[in-house]
Amino acid sequence: MMQRLPSAIAVLLLALIFATIAIGHAEQTVLRPLAESYVRLVPHELGAPNVITGILLTYRAFDTLGEVAVLFMVAAGVGLVLKEPGKAGARSASDSEAAQPASEIVRTAAQILVPLIAIFAAYIIMNGHISAGGGFQGGAVIASAVLLMLLADPSHKLNSVFLSVTESLAGVLFVLVGIAGLIFAGGFLDNRVLPLGQFGAFFSAGAIPLLSVLLGVKVGCELSVILDRFRA
Amino acid sequence: MVDALLHPLNIFIIGLGGAFLIPLLYRLGRAAIAAGVVLALAAMTLLSGVALWRLSHGAAPIEILTGGARPPLAINLRLGLPEAIFAFGVNLFALLGVPYILREKYGTILLYLLIVMGIQGMVMTRDLFNLFVFLEIVSIATYGLLSLRDTPAALSATFKYLTATVLASSFFLLGTMLIYAVTGLLNIDDLIASRASIAGPIGFAGLIFVLACLLLELKPFPANGWGLDVYETARSDVAAMISGGVSAGVFFALLKLLPLFESQLTLIATLGAITFVCSNLIGLRQTRTQRLLGYSSIGQMALLTLAASLLHGPGAERMTLLVIGGLFVNHLFAKVGLFWLAGHVGEARLRDWPALAGRPGAIAVFGILIAAISGLPPFPGFFAKWQLVMTLASDGRLAWIAVILVGSLLEAAYMFRWFGRSVHGTAEAQTSAKGPVGLLPIWGMAILLVAGGCISGSLAGLASPWIVAPLAAGAALCLLWNLPARIQGIIALAIVLVGGLWLVRDLSGLNRLFAVILLAGGLVVSIGCLYRADPRPGFYPLLAVMLLSLPALPRTTTNLEFFFVWELITLSSYFLILLRREARPYALRYLLFSLVAAFFLLAGFAMMQALTGISSLAAFRAAGPDAAPVFILLAIGFLIKAGAVGVHVWLPGAYAEADDDVSALLSAVISKAAIFGLLVGTYVAIRSELGLDLARLLGWIGMLTTLVAAMLAVRQDDIKRMLAYSSMSQLGYIVAAIALMSHLGWVTALYLVANHLMVKGILFLAAAVIILRTGTRMLSGLGGLARPMPLTFAAAAIAIVAMSGLPPLAGFGGKWLLLSAMIEKGWYGPALMTLLATFVGLIYMARFMQTIFFGARGAATATAGEAPIAILVSQYLLIAGILIMSFFPILLIEPVSKAIDPQFASTLVWQGMSLELIYATWNPVPTMTFAVAVSILLLGLFLLMQRSGHVGMGARGTSFYEFSGSIFAALTPPLAIRFWGDVSAATASAAERARKLYTGNGQTYNLYVLYYVLVLYAFGGGVRLIWTGIP
Amino acid sequence: MSEVAGSILVLIGAFFHFSAGLGMLRMPDAFTRMQAGTKASTLGNALILIGIAFYHPGWSLKLLILIYFVFMTNPVSSHALARAARAIRIPMAGPPPQALASAPAAARDGA
Amino acid sequence: MTSTVVLSTGLVVMLIGLWGVLAHRNILRIIISLSLIGTGTHILIVAIGYVRNGTAPIIDRALTVAEAPARAVDPVPSALVVTAIVIGLAVTAILLAYAIRLYESKKTLSIDAFRDSKW
Fold it and tell me: How many structural domains is chain D composed of?
């Protein structure tokens, strides 16, 4: 409790700084040069209607690759931190009750929702280059389906070998697509290794849909692995 | 095709692709993972190494493009020379450290690979947001690796680390986005180009937040408790990764963003200075190994920050590269090596480290790492600090130099204290240390340090091959470690003889004289070392380094060469002193005072170079009157090394407690290095107008030293301590002679140097014999040794006569020359003191002879026999020298006089007294008569006192000595000891108070983090901004 | 006109969301908080989605699916939570019967 | 105007998170507060990208290629926020994993209990 006052002062002083930011902020009325060139170039050069996906998966794909690595590391890291799943019994005293089967309501809902969620996830992933969506978002939705499955059947063992192999393969393929861009197109992670196709079509925008799928699969697997690790 | 394969982009492809592959390799088995990760790291090392090679040969920086577009659109990375140094260093260390993680789960290996890649990403990327991504990659990999140690303490430390770094990186993200909000740019080059547009409250806050994150990730004082806890509790290889790798990435990010923070440079430097000094201060009070290393790491990073912000500016790229690159490489390899060593030894507490004792290999590598981290030669940190100080001096930023030197001294203090305590085992030690195979990566680090030292040495302008001759000789002798001690010794002396002759072959003048005296004296005294047949690991290599460095010192022509050799002498003599267990605290004191002295020299050299723009020692001869501060700095430095009164407190302990033969070397030979330095430094004073007054002061200091030391010597009961004070006293004469700054004075000085060298060599070797034969070193336990060891007695008697100034031996000539020179200059006060000191000197010398060799045989002396042959050889060679010098003084004085001539001929200080006149006044009968009369008078006085009962010759003569001792005790209160004791106590209590900041509570640390951001904002210009922004 | 109706619906939905938040803060124990959070926010979600449908009639089908989704998930999740809470015996903040009459519930909030 | 409101909201959420980090003793609450700081930053990022009367930078029936530069909001912050969110999630996951281990080691979640190393 001794710290309350200094903490309050610190937060208040920071609030003062933030106030200067809020006061100083002026809403933009036109796009700035860099942003404008993105808006012009992504549809034109990359053939992707969704400018954001274009940026994410080509111009700033290096960031995205880094992000994938981050998730990959978290999956590994959480596994390392929460090692010895055998010790789960010691983890909480009420373990026996927690492991009881889920109620019928949850199970039924899961039966209905999981396919729905999966379809939704596929939609989001596959339409990332055309409309709002993308690999990350879709991957997260996949993981929510997995979570629901796990809630419905707490004793269910995820096939962790399958997950980790899939995740790795997706990652390796992502890098390989990047290398393909290096060899066959303008540079590492250039999406123009595949034909750009017709603007706005499902199969278009070069390698972006492919990358999107890889990303979705990878993120879905990674998040599922993380969930699984926490369950242990 | 080859170029495409060697392109640095492949570092990231290999890193990421390799990491993604590891779970697949896991299905194939452990061996596949091990092969994969080693291959990946080796490939990354190769790629960065090739790039470094090309860049250092003038290739243009390599642009790494991604996304098939040009920079502002797509992310780009760049690999220039600085980037390549950092990347290659990190890769090398990661490759060497891979054995530590190979046995872990595959998740760990994957994180290891990714952290290495992430660090290089932070180093190379040119996009602000991409920098954030790589920062997070590195952070998250760290979080994962930290879980390798899961004690409760480690877990809570990791959590503190987590919250603090998450807070910091939140600020980075916020800052990045605020900068984007103002500029619409993320590319760092573009941002730097449009730096002016990052203004207003938003842009300013953005800059400060980014800066805050980077500084916080470098763990600044006091917002760094979380970092220290992790350093303390993490597994040592992970701590090494944080200290060497993660910090490197963050620091490089700061370095490349520094152009954005041009208006905050002074603030950054100040904060760096505070951290550097405070963390090293607190390091003094640490008892746990890894926390100690943590403080040191933080200090090193702060030094890097300080240097980067001070050197920043147009046209400073090369200097920045040399200093930053050198400091970084030094920190990386040395600190990582030390962390690994901590893991290898496995002792968390410093006081358990004697477990290392008895393993010369481990101690050798430990010593190399400690010397490197303390910025001593021949390692990169030495050259980097040298150049940093030189640059700062040329900019006139002297206060910063002081800060850097103080911090370095504190760091050296705790590092060497730790080393000193580890070298000698305790009875119950020898426990948990593992086999020598585990040392291999640590040796790798040591070798890399040496290689780095060679490179940065040649970059710094240290090109002459002879300068490393001492080290090469030492290294060669290390290979003979399993030969018997005496054979090693003979080989070592042969090498020194050959090498030394090669070193002095083309010298001339004063330098040649000094080189020959130091080389010959060192060799002859070292013959005495052969009397010991017990294996002293490392003794002969160190001896060779020291003996070869001594003649190398006069050979040096630039200030850097001089300082390099000077530090080599310091370091090798420190290690030699440390060989004896009892000498531990004194060795540390010796080293610290030597380092203080060295730092004064460094500052002096730096000012000199700033004044004249010349790095050659010849600058001293051309210095103008404005060089007075240089003279003061140099004189202080050399006086500390010469044991002048007040700063002498290191001397008696080091001389008395070292191994007996080492004592002889220290007193006879090494002390003369300081005298040589003083001669060199005095050139400055000769030319500057202030010089003469200062020289008079110097003369008084010299005489006061002589007198006080003589009084102190009388009081000693320990033979070696008495001889130590006697050395100090004799050095005082020499200092006074140099201070005369006349031709005659300098001739005297050199004459005294040669005389003292031989005399003290004999006496310390005699002491060694006495201790060897009787087992005691206390005067009160000795007596009547003249009969059992007549040869030693004869040698000691001749030496005492030669030292005391009694005719007919050399000491008389020396005193006479000194008095003549003083009278010539009109220094009547010092002349009077000389007489007084000579008298006091006679008392202790008489006591020495009388108590040891006459009287009843003491209890300990019953079985004593004659001295070992090695010592006798050494002593009688020296006696031959004394006799030659006494009866044919012209043999020495003429070359001395010729050597001095050219320097004084160009000045007006020498007031026309010709050399012939000196001989004329010395040789004639009146002189001799006067001398004999004085001697008789003194003897009569002595007999009178004896008869009147003050001196009981038969009753071991103690009462007279006790009487005079008590008088002198009253005259010489232990002011210096008290003063330095107070200084050290004050430092310790300041450290104790400062460390109370670290409460251990993670939440408090978060509060510090927040306040750090606020302080940065306020002092970075935020107060003014808010003041003017909100009317 | 339809935009006004839509706005009113969104506003009402927002009010329910607000009350859900208030309930989370002010209710005394896990179960009552869960109840406040679920019920009010389900209704709030639905109202807001319907309100949006007034703005963009073209989105009606998608919004309907969303409402279905919300109706499916919210109760199921709160049910699962409540069950878990009961399984680990989280205490209910049952006030003694006599206190119920005198003291207002707000005085015993569980914050 | 709109974006200033959103931006201020983001800043306020960050402040709430900061206060939570400093004032709450419970580790879970601290973690929640940390992710609140992250969320606040994400809100702020989106607000920064807003252009007056702009719409999502997705070319479809509502936004043609030609008029996109004039009507789209800045796509860069939107792209960055995806990355930032993922990283925030990653960090939260790690934090929670450590919270579990901390609870195991001392059977408490009060941050005051975890001050093993100091000075």
Answer: 1
